[in-house]
Amino acid sequence: MNLPVLDPLPIDEAPREGPLIDTFGRIHNNLRISVTDRCNLRCTYCMPEEVAFMDKRELLSFEEIARFVKAVAPLGINKVRLTGGEPLMRRELPRLVSMLSEIPGIHDVGLTTNGILLAPSAQALFDAGLRRINISLDTLNHEHFRQLTRRDGLDDVIAGIHAAKQAGFHPIKINAVSIRGITEHEVIPLARFARQHHLEMRFIEYMPIGADLWERDKVYFGREILDQIETHIGALAPAAKYDPKAPAQDFDYIDGGGRVGIIASVSRPFCMSCNRLRLTAEGRLRNCLFALTEIDLKPMLRGKTSQDEIAAIVRGNVWQKWEGHEINTARFMKPDRTMHAIGG
Ligand code: SAM
Ligand code: SF4
Questions:
Q1: 5-9, 94-98, 112-116, range with the lowest pLDDT
Q2: Contact 83/344 with Cβ under 8 angstroms?
């Protein structure tokens, strides 16, 4: 990775106590942890076909990840989501889930997975304390699945969804990337499938963070998705706790048939209410999905740096967070890591 690594120094101005806040007043309580950059799919919008993965020795151990979470939980981080690459490619993931669930202050451990390896591990994940699960699925058509992911596996994903239901996960969210002309015609079959199986369907606007050549014209916008669903399935109304500033805007079918979420990162950026930071699989701290700089925490997590010093570095990094990603401006600069290597 060629991203510049920030000198983690200018922390003097960051508050030394209180919530994890930046200069725009955004309070951070949400941490995304990538546990691997490896994946058993090759989604075209996320990563290239040929990809060199990190040496496994570069990956943070579960103990190092837990050490980081213990350092930031006292700053107000209370929600954690495991992602990747494909997080279920990391052996013994339920062990990490239970380690993180036991950390004082961590109320909520979630997982985003492509579902391929979920069927055999759903129950162990649930038993370890995982409650929130998002399963990515862009199509119910085998041939289209193969085109989008460059691999087979649709039946495994469907089996994973059923196993997650069986294990007791509720709600189960299904994530689909929304690309004009490519996944546009999948909206209705996916939304119907979700209604039928009592799943929460979420459509994510295609973002310029993958390997594909992204153009704004390729984004199939949230508003268009809602129009399609209302025309072909049924009327929607903003959900009771609808928050226009939240990343996902949730809508409920007025006939009681379930919920649809829209993550309109491009047409309605939610940067001003962003509460997230990220830890990459090899231990780099990123204060934005689109960040152009990172802090390498691995030497600290592997060395003798105290928990207080790590916490101070995190405070400093959050304090320096920029206003937003600027996808919709000429100033936008794409990070040179693709989504799988950052942790989506
Ligand atoms: N492998 C897991 C999975 O696919 O769920 C977790 C990692 S993946 C990077 C996390 C999420 O990012 C997935 O829901 C995926 O669809 C989404 N994603 C990947 N590339 C994207 C892009 N260019 N725009 C929008 N969402 C993207
Ligand atoms: Fe793998 Fe998830 Fe990226 Fe697809 S979106 S290639 S499943 S990391």
A1: 5-9
A2: yes
